[in-house]
Amino acid sequence: MLVPDVVLDRTSPVPLYYQVATRMEQLIDQGELPAGSRLENEIELADRLGVSRPTMRRAIQYLVERGMLVRKRGVGTQIVHPKVRRPVELTSLHDDLTQNGQEPRTEVRSFNVEPMTDHVADLMGLPAGTAASHIERLRFAGGEPLALMTNIVPADVLALTAEALTDHGLYDLLRAAGRVPRMARQVVGARAATAAEARLLGESAGTPVLTMTRTAWDAGGQAVEYGSHIYRASRYSFELTLTSA
After folding, report:
1. Looking at the whole model, is its pTM more than 0.90?
2. Can you name the CATH fold of 16-79?
3. How far apart are CA 81 and CA 166, in angstroms?
4. What is the pLDDT of residues 25-77, one digit of tens each?
5. Which of 63, 71, 85, 91 is packed most tightly, with the most Cβ within 10 A?
């Protein structure tokens, strides 16, 4: 696959490898370098773009570390599906995937209405034993499994069905019911996937996964959902924008 010419600013303080890598990243995101295609030889690519071989090698390594390229023995350097980069905002995964044209699909693996545990009730500030919908879903993006999600929604907040959760995102349903999440406490972490989790996500047992737990409240201060999610680290990342005071 021929990479289109990259315009480089050799007077800029931005390193050349980073200029090359970010332009290639844009081309992959936009589909101009489609997933599954193979890059041309590293030496030929460096010569054609007018950069040194170490610069080209570093640009490619940067994209490998970002999960956008993979090196395969006997095959060369191959373009893979770009990661879903999710801003850390009070939105749902379904919202973010839809906005980015990722065509989310949901498989509801279990759905029950039962008392919530003391731990979850304490996090949500509710009495122990409060009745709630307990939902486990597998979320797909671009036809591939991306996240395994467990959510708990108090029964008096929203009456849910497995059918509605298959066709709509949870936050879509909350908004439609006038229970818009306005504030949340969220914790992001990482761990190794269990064998069962890895099988569902199309990964190997022990593969690193990202974790996220969230408790959300509406404008009136009532807890509307608790979520515990795991994401494929090879296809997903959280993105933060930081500013100074």
Report:
1. no
2. Arc Repressor Mutant, subunit A (1.10.10)
3. 24
4. 888 877 788 877 888 888 888 888 889 999 999 888 888 877 788 887 777 88
5. 63
Which pLDDT value is given to residue 174? 92
Q: Would strands 84-87 and 236-239 be described as parallel, antiparallel, or unpaired? A: parallel
Give me the amino acid identity at 175. Answer: R
H-assigned helices in the chain: 16-29, 42-49, 53-65, 93-99, 118-124, 162-167, 170-176, 195-201
Q: What mean pLDDT comes out for the span 152-164? A: 94
Distances (CA, A) of 230 to 138, 141, 198: 10, 14, 10
Distance between CA atoms of residues 223 and 169, nearest Å? 18
| Residues forming a β-bridge with 183 | 217
User: What digits encode the pLDDT tens for the residues 69-122?
Assistant: 888 777 788 887 665 555 444 566 776 666 666 678 999 999 999 999 999 999
Domain range list for the chain = 16-79, 84-239
Q: For residues 178 and 158, give the distance between their C-alpha atoms in angstroms, rounded to a whole number.
A: 10
Name 209's bridge partners. 191, 232
3-state helix, strand, coil in the chain (%, to 5): 30, 35, 40
Of residues 242, 241, 233, 239, the one with CA closest to residue 65: 233
Superfamily for the 84-239 domain: Chorismate lyase-like (3.40.1410.10)
> Residue 207: what residue type?
T
d(CA 187, CA 214): 7
